[in-house]
């Protein structure tokens, strides 16, 4: 989000992350393992016909444990199920026959009406050894080596005691997969490690005659730490492995630590709020001498009996409840040692009516790198319903009225009507601006959130709700990425959290500004208040009488200043961070001074952007609960606005794990893996690190924390800031996830991935020309956890390249060249609406209400979309009439269609790693993507505009996807003549079968020929 001088623009989860929420986000099983790469793994002992289910009892204290299950495609056992047997300390188990089923659905109960049913979704379990511990599912045998006939610790002359640190990976289950030197590997996933002390897991293994071992670690769900593909070499004796650092003959990291027997404090301030048949439960974080790792929620009431649910957040959304029913909730805190607090004070709530049309959305759940993104400013894209158009208080002043162009003009109905236009261009993901109810004088863009739990009615229509948009997009195979704001609210606060009251007086000077109060009216942005005749009614925002508990200094006293009209200005007449109007606990109370300083994370950016104290649990709960609602609707991802203005520790501890946990809970681990989160870490410079500040650089936010900080989020933010600034740019982690090794693709190591991908600010800033963007982007890729997920665009609703305030005006040929690079280089190509016809090129992107929107880069686009359009597939239009047919016939629109066709046909262009090794040419590279699970192997040579020579490449037949030209390589070298500006060549290696080169894709166009 852009900061401009115009007033009216826009402006505690536990440290451990549930392993199930991270499934597949980290590195896949390495090829040296006896399991296919990229697949979840199970113990080989079950041979696919049984499942041995281990259930953790440590935090339950039930008198009995039953497994109620159904093999996939089979019938459920009779309630309460089959009683589980004691396995080892803190575990019970049951082995169940599966027949030919690939897994089972399961719940657990004490046999007396208390259930753990995974928050109503049941547990989806596979085969082999499976653990279920506090809501987390993994593949492991937690009792291996602890049977009555075996000593708990090997006692031979050669043993290795291996300690593994979990603080930087966030795993609750760890398996040690190893082989003694000269010996055989254990069966995947290895043997379970046991909690040794806070942040450490331990296992001692017998080496026989060997003096050491090779090892890798995993969380039991296919997520591995294999030392970046090289395995760990460990010696006999005591060894620690922490953040890829191996320390031999180490001191016992738990020796000085007394056993943790102290339970956490009970959670406080538990509140339950009903919304129909859903309940949002929030509470203040509990405290513990070594840190709280989870919370256990017990619900009573309703027809489903007592239900126990585990979460790592301090907010929980409970859905699918009975209508008009009283429920009672208590919360207990759990620490890493399994100590459980007392119950919190109960919170009671009664549900309301069951909606007549329940939400139907489910995310598509596919790899986001396959989906080019079309970015729309929803209110300015296409108007499907004129009855929800609103001009706001600045309609006349801005000049919009003269153009009959209200700021809120486009809507969801208009977007639904033109999904086929977007699909016809070849895009399969649509990024939309924030949907929450806004409140300011100029809030069409969505970044002035007022009620984060309510969709802005100015965007919705009968039959075209937000849910309808999501469902309509999914029906066409298209994703919806929702822009979300965690950093700030509107200047009028956040409804349900805090809304300020300003001083006002309806005297001869100010009666025009302050609307008469109407206690029976509630602002929603759309409805016209009858007394004032305004949809932007403000009668609820002001008071002449000083409010109870007011903290604003000098309430209502006259200042020495006047307005431009000459009217007297009073103290507390306008929201401000420094006046005391906003509570310090919930909002920051300072103005930003240094955009690359610590205050950029803890002060207001603009007077329209009231800066949340995101380190406060009440604020965190409010935001997590709000965005859970949209996850539940089935959105496919979030774009995180102003991400750089929130400390990375807060993202990593609170907001990012909350997203993963909710998606996993509602839709499963695979959906969570592919729920696309990308942040706006605005660094408007051309260099790799933002003026040398790591804390303000985009790539910094793709990494987990590597230090251990205070349990207090505010203190932790400062500790992390100082720690990383002192370490500097040279000591930041590096990654080869985006790079080929020679000509070979390798499994990416995502074990230190934070959960946030990024907008590629460096390429964006350097897109004055494509060659400059390419070389700058390439230079930054080793500092990004995985640059193949970078969102790449030329310009946006904020800036053009080089922080230009105008929409890109480099010319059609330059646009074509930029597109050819974006659609074939690593990352996800993204286009701001209208760029396919160079819409508003050279126009100022934004000027607030000081000029008409029609003269800016945020102009209304619907006039170019008039008519009918039907897409038969991505990039293919079967029919188009009217103005939209002309728009689709534009040179760049046709260029995009073919680029999208080519990209979709070549997996290497979508998800591949790349290299420029052995290649001459300015914008020339090779890309490869390999997936053993699907049998995919795609290798492509690309050159944009200029000639290239490739050496050291595999011999074989190569076919160009642009021209169909075929080259036979026998000596490892291929030379390609220059195709011309904006044109490109994509020579694909023919590997036969499903990996055969496609040859020419699509028809020749204005640039690709």
UniProtKB/TrEMBL annotation:
This is Carbohydrate binding domain-containing protein. InterPro entries: CBM25 (IPR005085), FN3_dom (IPR003961), FN3_sf (IPR036116), GH (IPR017853), GH13_cat_dom (IPR006047), Ig-like_fold (IPR013783). Residues 347-360 have a biased composition (Polar residues). It comes from the Bacteria. PROSITE patterns: FN3. Residues 138-157, 342-369, 384-405 are annotated as: Disordered. The keyword NADP does not apply. Residues 1-37 form the signal peptide. PANTHER family: ALPHA-AMYLASE 1 (PTHR10357:SF215), ALPHA-AMYLASE FAMILY MEMBER (PTHR10357). It comes from Streptomyces sindenensis. Residues 263-354 form the Fibronectin type-III domain. It holds the Pfam family Alpha-amylase. Keywords: Carbohydrate metabolism, Glycosidase, Hydrolase, Metal-binding, Polysaccharide degradation, Signal. Its cofactor is Ca(2+).
């Amino acid at each position: 989000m852009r900061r401009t001088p115009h007033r009216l623009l826009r402006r505690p989860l536990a440290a451990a992350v549930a392993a199930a929420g991270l499934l597949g986000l980290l590195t896949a099983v390495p090829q040296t393992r006896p399991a296919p790469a990229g697949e979840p793994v199970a113990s080989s002992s079950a041979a696919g016909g049984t499942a041995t289910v281990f259930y953790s009892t440590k935090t339950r204290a039930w008198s009995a444990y039953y497994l109620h299950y159904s093999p996939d495609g089979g019938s459920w056992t009779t309630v309460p199920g089959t009683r589980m047997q004691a396995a080892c300390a803190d575990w019970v188990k049951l082995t169940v026959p599966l027949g030919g089923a690939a897994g089972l659905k399961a719940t657990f109960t004490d046999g007396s009406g208390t259930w753990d049913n995974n928050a109503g979704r049941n547990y989806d379990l596979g085969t082999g050894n499976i653990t279920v511990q506090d809501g987390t599912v993994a593949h492991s045998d937690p009792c291996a080596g602890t049977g009555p006939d075996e000593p708990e610790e090997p006692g031979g002359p050669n043993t290795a005691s291996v300690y593994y640190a979990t603080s930087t990976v966030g795993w609750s289950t760890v398996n040690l997969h190893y082989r003694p030197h000269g010996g055989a590997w254990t069966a995947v996933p290895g043997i379970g490690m046991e909690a040794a002390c806070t942040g450490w897991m331990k296992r001692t293994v017998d080496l026989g005659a060997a003096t050491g071992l090779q090892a890798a670690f995993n969380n039991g769900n296919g997520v591995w730490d294999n030392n970046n593909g090289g395995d760990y070499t460990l010696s006999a004796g005591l060894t620690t492995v922490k953040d890829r650092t191996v320390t031999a003959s180490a001191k016992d990291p738990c020796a000085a630590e007394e056993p943790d027997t102290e339970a956490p404090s009970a959670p406080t301030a538990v509140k339950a709020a009903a919304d129909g048949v859903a309940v949002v439960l929030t509470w203040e974080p509990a405290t513990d001498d070594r840190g709280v790792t989870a919370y256990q929620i017990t619900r009573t009431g309703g027809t489903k009996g007592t239900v126990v649910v585990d979460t790592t957040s301090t907010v929980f959304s409970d859905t699918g409840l009975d209508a008009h029913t009283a429920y009672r909730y208590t919360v207990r805190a759990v620490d890493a040692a399994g100590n459980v607090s007392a119950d919190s004070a109960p919170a009671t709530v009664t549900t309301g009516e069951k909606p007549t049309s329940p939400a139907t959305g489910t995310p598509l759940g596919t790899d986001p790198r396959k989906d080019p993104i079309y970015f729309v400013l929803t209110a300015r894209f296409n108007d499907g319903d004129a009855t929800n158009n609103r001009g706001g208080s600045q309609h006349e002043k801005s000049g919009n009225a003269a153009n009959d162009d209200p700021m809120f003009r486009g809507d969801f109905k208009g977007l639904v009507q033109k999904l086929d236009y977007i699909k016809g261009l070849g895009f399969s993901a649509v990024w939309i601006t924030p949907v929450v109810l806004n409140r300011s004088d100029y809030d069409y863009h969505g970044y002035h959130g007022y009620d984060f739990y309510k969709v802005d009615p100015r965007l919705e229509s009968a039959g075209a709700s937000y849910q309808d948009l999501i469902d309509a997009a999914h029906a066409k195979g298209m994703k919806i990425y929702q822009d979300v704001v965690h950093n700030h609210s509107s200047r009028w606060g956040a409804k349900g959290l805090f809304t300020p009251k300003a001083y006002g007086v309806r005297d001869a000077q100010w009666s025009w500004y302050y609307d008469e109060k109407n206690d029976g009216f509630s602002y929603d942005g759309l409805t016209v208040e009858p007394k004032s005749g305004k949809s932007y009614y403000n009668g609820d925002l002001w008071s002449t009488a000083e409010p109870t508990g007011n903290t604003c200094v000098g309430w209502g006293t006259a200042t020495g200043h006047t307005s431009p009209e000459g009217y007297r200005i009073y103290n507390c007449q306008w929201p401000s961070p420094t006046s005391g109007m906003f509570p310090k606990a919930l909002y920051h109370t300072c103005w930003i001074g240094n955009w690359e300083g610590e205050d950029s994370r803890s002060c207001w950016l603009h007077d329209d952007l009231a800066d949340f104290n995101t380190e406060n649990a009440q604020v965190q709960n409010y935001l997590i609960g709000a965005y859970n609602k949209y996850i539940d609707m089935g959105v496919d991802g979030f774009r995180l606005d102003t991400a750089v203005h929130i400390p990375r520790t807060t993202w990593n501890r609170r907001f990012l794990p909350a997203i993963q946990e909710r998606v996993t809970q509602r839709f499963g681990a695979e959906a969570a893996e592919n729920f696309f989160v990308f942040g706006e870490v605005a660094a408007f410079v051309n260099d790799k690190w933002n003026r040398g500040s790591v804390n303000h650089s985009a790539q910094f936010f793709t990494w987990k924390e590597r230090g251990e900080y205070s349990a207090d989020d505010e203190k932790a933010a400062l500790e992390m800031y100082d720690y990383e600034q002192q370490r500097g740019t040279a000591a930041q982690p590096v990654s080869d996830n985006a790079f080929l090794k020679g000509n070979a693709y390798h499994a990416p190591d995502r074990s230190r991935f934070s959960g946030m991908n990024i907008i590629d600010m460096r390429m964006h800033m350097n897109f004055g020309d494509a060659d400059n963007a390419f070389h700058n982007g390439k230079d930054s890729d080793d500092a990004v956890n995985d640059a193949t997920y970078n969102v790449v665009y030329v310009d946006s609703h904020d800036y053009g390249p080089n922080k230009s305030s105008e929409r890109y005006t480099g010319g059609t040929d330059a646009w074509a060249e930029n597109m050819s690079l974006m659609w074939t280089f690593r990352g996800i190509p993204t286009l701001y609406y209208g760029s396919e016809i160079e819409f508003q090129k050279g126009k100022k992107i934004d000027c607030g209400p000081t000029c008409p929107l029609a003269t800016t880069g945020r102009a209304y686009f619907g006039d170019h979309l008039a008519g009918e359009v039907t897409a038969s597939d991505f990039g293919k239009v079967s029919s188009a009439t009217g103005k939209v047919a002309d728009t689709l016939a534009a040179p760049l629109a046709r260029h995009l269609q073919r680029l999208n066709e080519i990209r979709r046909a070549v997996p290497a262009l979508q998800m591949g790693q790349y290299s420029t090794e052995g290649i001459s040419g300015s914008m020339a590279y090779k890309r490869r993507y390999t997936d053993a699970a699907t049998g995919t192997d795609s290798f492509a040579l690309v050159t944009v505009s200029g000639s290239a020579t490739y050496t050291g490449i595999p011999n074989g037949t190569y076919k160009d996807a642009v021209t169909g030209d075929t080259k036979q390589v026998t000596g490892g070298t291929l030379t390609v003549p220059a195709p011309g500006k904006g044109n490109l060549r994509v020579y694909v290696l023919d590997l036969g079968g499903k990996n055969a080169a496609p040859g020419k894709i699509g028809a020749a166009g204005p640039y690709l020929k």
